[in-house]
Amino acid sequence: MIRPGQFVRLLAIQRVLARHRLDEIILALHLFRPLRFLLYLSPLYWVRRERGPEGVRIRHALEDLGPVFVKLGQMFSTRRDLLPDEIADELAKLQDAVPPFSGTDAKRIVEEALGDRIENLFDHFEEIPIASASIAQVHAARTLKGEEVVIKVVRPDIEQQIRRDVGLAKQLAALAERYWREGRRLHLKQIVADYEQVILDELDMMRESANLSQVGRNFSKGEHVLIVPEPDWELTREKILVMNRVRGVPVGDLDTLRSLGVDMKRLAELGVEIFFTQVFRDNFFHADMHPGNIMVDTENPAYPKYVAVDFGIMGSLTEGDQRYLAENFLAFFNRDYRRVALLHLESGWVPATTRADELESAFRSVCEPIFERPFSEISFALLLLKLFRTGRRFGMEVQPQLVLLQKTLLYIEGLGKQLYPDLDLWDTAKPFLEKWIRDRKGFDGLKRKVMHETPDLLEQIPEVPRVVIDLLNRAQQGKLSMEWRSTELQQLRETLEQSQRSHYGAIAGGSLLITGALLITEFVVTGAIVSVVGAIVLLRGGR
Hints:
It is a single chain. By secondary structure, the chain is of the alpha+beta class. It folds into four domains: 4-92, no CATH class; 158-201; 248-440, no CATH class; 442-540, no CATH class. 60% of the residues lie in helices and 8% in strands. It has helices spanning 4-19, 23-27, 37-41, 43-46, 54-65, 67-76, 85-92, 103-114, 118-121, 158-179, 181-185, 188-201, 205-218, 254-259, 264-282, 319-333, 337-347, 356-371, 380-392, 403-419, 425-440, 442-460, 464-476, 486-500, 503-519, 524-540, and strands at 122-125, 131-132, 136-143, 148-154, 226-227, 240-244, 249-250, 285-286, 294-297, 305-308, 314-315. Strands 1, 2, 3, 4 and 6 form a five-stranded antiparallel sheet that branches. The protein has a four-stranded mixed sheet with strand order 5-10-9-7. A two-stranded antiparallel sheet has the order 8-11. A hairpin with a 3-residue loop joins strand 2 and strand 3 (136-143).
């Protein structure tokens, strides 16, 4: 039930929309169309209100509504294939041009966090921010050691505003799931809950510092194609993040990049490679990669590098989700719709009662007209929208754990198309996905998995006899529904008790079993023999 405070906030949202002449847009949506007559009964409709370009009015409304709504605007700002250019241009200003808060307040927050006057902490602090976003703003500074740094300062009272709006969103999502059939399929409550955790985590600068360190290590080897700032742990606190200043040309400044001779094709393809590397190699990806957070290092224009900032929102996937995504991508672009249908059934994305042949036919009817066009002209955004619309017929459920990934993929595609309109996203991503799947299947995949799990397995082997004996004791006492003959139960107990007295035998047997599994990938006969010996020793408990 919507609480009084949330109802007041809902009215305030409607007032903002009305002031910026956006209520007609909201009431034009299918869900609210039956209520359109209420618009003409409202006194606000007949009074003088702000006029001007639609994109400007939308941006102003989102800024007035606060950080949660600014984030939504940022998400749509790179989708020029979904929005008119006039609106997309205005929403792009939300990425790093949100109205700043007072520099005096920023100094106060820094002093409170570090427990000292700003003069005793920094040789210089610039009160005018160099960037201002929905959650925090950034100030240039110089340490007492003379190092150029930037200080990211969380907006005052921002947490209270976020909790208020997210609380309202939860109530609206609950109502939608209760009274709107599509609301349940979309898992709106789960999506809002996940978003709440993400945006609240973004308020913690210590968490962002750890994210910076991790991504820096991930890309510290090889060609070092992604540059990220290094946090200053001594001066970083929950509400402020101090890091070295990195420089570059804003990725949206296409004229400057071209004038410097930057290889735009390579730059666009590199962005795709970095994205898939983070998702599939590192399983730790920047989930807020709008142009306001990305710059380009143009020191070598023929081999440009990316400079990324704002690591407050990071994403990761389970290995199962990674595999299903990689195989789905490959199957889609190989036009193997049967495989796509089976993957959706195996992963549980559609009900198990769905007929695979019907799902295959539906995907084919959606994708074939799209794939008749050159790959460089295919939009992932439009493809995803069509697939979701098709999946709705089969009860396909939105996967909340993939929301961040979908948003980031749309960011990357939109950015790549701006840099190089002929970007072939598939040609760039396909070799990476094929290699990732090869590395996880066959003998190499088995060896990697066994080597990864061996330490935990060896640690647990000595505990197996004790756990089984405890289980059998409970069974004998009638605590488990088992019907074993007492003589067999007693014999098994004696065997296991002897096994428990010989941990070393169990460890040796387990080690031989694992070693055999590793050897069998290269030496089949030898590996099989070692595995059999290990199994015998393990079962005999080292007798």
